[in-house]
Amino acid sequence: MVQSKEEFKINLGKRIEQLRLRAGFTQGKLGSLLDGKDRQFINRYENEGANPTAYILLQLCAALNVTIDELFDFSGLDNKV
After folding, report:
1. What would you report as the CA-atom Rg of the chain, rounded to the nearest whole angstrom?
2. Count of CB atoms situated within 10 Å of the CB of 48
C-alpha cells in the first residue's frame, strides 16, 4: 500500500522510537550518537514527523544497529497510520 508523505513521516517516527527503545537508548543518547545532536532533534522525528536527510537515516541505522530495510519496516507498529 502506498502511503502519503505525512503517513510515512509519522510511521517513520514511530519506528525510530520503537527501535530506540529496543536498543535501550534515551532520546538524548540516540541524539548524541548522531554527531552530537540533542534530545529535541530526536523528539522532532519521533513526535512531529520531521523529515530526516538520507545521511541522518544512515546514521540512525548505524546507531540503532539496523539496516535501512529494517528501519522502513512498519509492519510491527501499533496504530500505524
Report:
1. 12
2. 12
Q: How far is the first Cα of the chain from the last one, in angstroms, to the nearest whole number?
A: 12
> Quick one: 4 exposed, middle or buried, by C-beta within 10 A (0-12, 13-18, 19+)?
exposed
Q: Which three cell numbers stand for residue 48?
A: 512531529
Q: Contact at 8 Å (CB) between 28 and 17?
A: no
Closest CA to 64 of 51, 72, 77: 72
pLDDT tens-digit series, residues 52-78: 999 999 999 999 999 999 999 999 897
Burial of 75 (0-12, 13-18, 19+ CB in 10 A): exposed
